[in-house]
Structure formats: structure tokens, C-alpha cells
């Protein structure tokens, strides 16, 4: 039996049903994989474990936010998404006519699917339970006209209609490969995720090259000290590893004489202190893990 694994993301205008669909696919185990490096800079929203496949659903921050939707950054975001995932699900709610917002996203997807890696886009007609058969058929035709989709699948996340079919379709677009995350290891520690995110943000500030995709942030531990700090707040030791792929990237993060890393540390620390309501001693380590994104052994060592 061949095992497939890979990443998918849902895009679509606000309220298209992306989150609800993610939850329906993943079941109860909506997951934040805290303390683990993200293979992309997108947050893992959930993981579908099957005997024959593992489908990792990632978020595409900004894509569904109207402000950035119209902004310059959209192109980059979509481009990144398309090159990082194996399949994109474009959500179009059945109870709403195809509108300019949908057309805009559709055009971007089509263009980038052509000149990118050719990432397949599955058109997902969501909320099928809200309309009758006639209306659904009309909507499917309108969606078909919007672009060239790898598939068009009507679903209802609330009734469960065709959710399994969609899962099969998405899995069908994954390539052969080992599971990326251990089964059952979906934890829900939003604090660690946010701490990692704050460190990541600080580390990437002002950096424009390929570094973003090569940086993995792992929160090793958050340990309270027995003595509170002078001002009476709790005192936490927070140990974090930053993994990059090359020595040159390590040099960028650390900066001359460690100056940049110190800035990264103090900026992240301020955010973490505000987040956790505690004084924080932040311990940052930068390590090179060559090609960690592609190497299953490295992924294992990094906690995948
Ligand atoms: N009837 C019905 N309602 C749905 C379905 N899926 C989602 N909804 C509802 O549609 C609304 C939006 O769903 P979300 O999953 O939050 O949509 P989203 O695309 O993640 O929204 P943003 O995060 O704003 O982009 C919620 O009120 C859901 O309950 C469905 O299959 N059927």
C-alpha cells in the first residue's frame, strides 16, 4: 500500500466556511501543533490521519482578510501558499452568488497555478445544505466558468455531505511520502504556539530573502521559577530553538557579534511578557539543520 502525505490549504472570501470545513475534515482533533516547527510559515490548523495518508491542513494568514486581499501582499501570499502546499481548496459558498471577491481570488489562483509549480486547485462549493438542487447546479456551473479546476466538489460541513469525498479528492493530490506528524500527537497549547510565533516574527523582521521558509521555531520549554520576580510577577524561563537550513542564514539571524539576536530576543521577550503576564528570561539558540524541510530524519529530530 502506498502512503501519501502533504499539505493543503483552503482559501476563499470571509465566511466561505473554511474553518468549519477544516473542523469537519479533522474531526474533534483540531490541532495546533505547538512546540513543533512549522514546515511552512503557515499555522497548522489540523491534520487528517488515515491508514493510507496524512493530510496537513494549513492556514493562509491574510488571504481571507479584505484589507490585505486588496493589498500588495496578496500576490506574495498566494504565491507562497501555492508553492508550499500540494493542493489548494478554493471555497465558494453555495448560498451566495459568485462575486467580484471570488473572481479576484480565482484569477490569482489561475495565474499562479500556471506559472508556479502548477499546484492543483480544487473548487469546493461549501454550505450545500443551504440551497436546493436547482440552485446548487446553477452555482456549480458558475464556479466551473470561473477557471480551470482540478475538481469541483460540493460539500456541507454541517451535515457532513460529501466531506469524505472531498477528503479523498484532496488526498488524491498528495504525493507518496511518509507521515509528517506522529499520529495522536496533536496538542493544544496555544501559549507555546504564540510564543513561537512572537520569536519568529521578531527574527524575521526586516528580512526579505528566502529565510522565512527556512526558519523553524521550537519552544523547548516554559518553566516557572520558584521565586517570583522583584515586582511580584511570576518569573518564567523560556527556552527556544531557531532552526535554519544554512550557515549564512544563521549569520543573518545572529548578526554582528550577536547584536541582532539580542534585539530579536528583547523584542520577542516584551511580547511574551505581555502575553503571559510574567517576567521572562528568554533563552534563544540558533542551530543549522540542513534541509530540515525535506529530510524525514531531520523532521523526526525536530519533533515531527
Ligand atoms: N449551513 C451551513 N453553514 C455553514 C457551513 N459551513 C460553515 N457554515 C457557517 O458559515 C459561517 C462562516 O463559517 P467559517 O467556517 O467561520 O468561515 P471562514 O471561511 O473560516 O470565515 P473567515 O475566518 O471569516 O474567513 C459560520 O457561521 C458557519 O457556521 C455549512 O456547511 N453549512
Automatic annotation (TrEMBL):
Region listing for G1, in residue ranges: 12-19
Region listing for G3, in residue ranges: 59-62
Gene: era
Name under which the protein is recorded: GTPase Era
Presence of the UniProt keyword Flavoprotein in the record: no
Protein topology in the membrane: Peripheral membrane protein
Entries under CDD domains matching the protein: Era, KH-II_Era
Subcellular location: Cytoplasm; Cell membrane
UniProt keyword Metal-binding present: no
Binding site for GTP: 12-19, 59-63, 126-129
Keywords of this entry: Cell membrane, Cytoplasm, GTP-binding, Membrane, Nucleotide-binding, Ribosome biogenesis, RNA-binding, rRNA-binding
Stated role: An essential GTPase that binds both GDP and GTP, with rapid nucleotide exchange. Plays a role in 16S rRNA processing and 30S ribosomal subunit biogenesis and possibly also in cell cycle regulation and energy metabolism.
Chief localisation class: cytoplasm
